[in-house]
Amino acid sequence: MLSSPTSRPGSAEKHEPGDADPATIGVIGTGRIGLALVGHIAKKGFTVLACDADAAKRPDVEARGARWAELSDIARDAEAILIAVGYDRDLRALVADGLIEQLRPGTILAVLSTVEPRTVQELAANGAAAGVHVVDATMCRGGRAADAGTMLTFVGGDADAIDRLKPVISAYSTDIVYTGAVGTAQAAKAANNLLMWACLIANHEALALARRFGVDVDVLRDALLKTGAENGVLRHWGTSTMAWADDDLEIIQAMARHTGMSLPQSDLNRELCRRLKPDKFELDKYGV
Predict the structure, then answer these.
(1) By residue range, what is the domain housing residue 155?
(2) Rounded distance, CA 258 to CA 265, Å?
(3) For a tag site, which of 42, 126, 210, 278 has the least CB within 10 Å?
(4) Per-residue pLDDT averaged across 69-94, rounded?
(5) Do both 273 and 253 map to the same domain?
(6) Residue that terminates a domain, selected from 160, 181, 202
(7) 168 with 80: CB under 8 angstroms?
(8) What is the pLDDT of residues 242-287, one digit of tens each?
(9) Residue 58 has pLDDT above 80, yes or no
(10) Would you list the DSSP string of 61-122?
(11) How far is CA 122 from the centre of its chain?
């Protein structure tokens, strides 16, 4: 099992690759999270090649020390490639467009996006046939942690490939947790997301109910953070955009269907999140 990095990102000297370490890193997808990671990886001394479907992101990518490149150039030159596209369908589109076929044997392809486990498993099977090492490397803690370089990354797949990639992951993660085979990191991330969205709803209900009875919710929230009701969403109350709630819960529902499970709370939470999103954190409107 991989251990957590011993120092915070940015505190160490620039990375000097060993014989087995990748020195040129490709990043596909430079959205809110991907762009932050590009900066951390470049600061560690890696050569970073990045691309995005939105060419307007090029100045921001270059400002963070990376080189804007075509996908074909990344496939040819990068020894490890991080995929940070938004959706499962985006990852599948990359595969359908022949991404694997463009890579050199021995390339490490890490899926950072939150997708269905079987999507990564299918990609890994295709990669193995071409000599490409596909690893599952999805992340938790959101935008604040991405900016700070303090992500928690779940990793799954071939241990040797992950060990080679660890200096890259450590550039933006303070915690790295090895979960097992390819696809297990996605399952671990799904568990995180299931709990996170359930807490968001429960926090709204608890605070809205207390407010109706005249309780100062700021005082209550501070107190609840010292009890067994404490949770990360409550700790960072008011900051969630809920941008990924529906997609996260859709993936969880698909995973449950695939295994023949019933997850009634998650099904309900998806509908509740849809209702909550327009008026999130407005307690006077909750339950009306």
Answers:
(1) 24-181
(2) 17
(3) 278
(4) 96
(5) yes
(6) 181
(7) yes
(8) 999 999 999 999 999 999 999 999 999 999 999 999 999 999 999 9
(9) yes
(10) HHHTT-EE--HHHHHHH-SEEEE--SSHHHHHHHHHTTHHHHSPTT-EEEE-S---HHHHHH
(11) 19
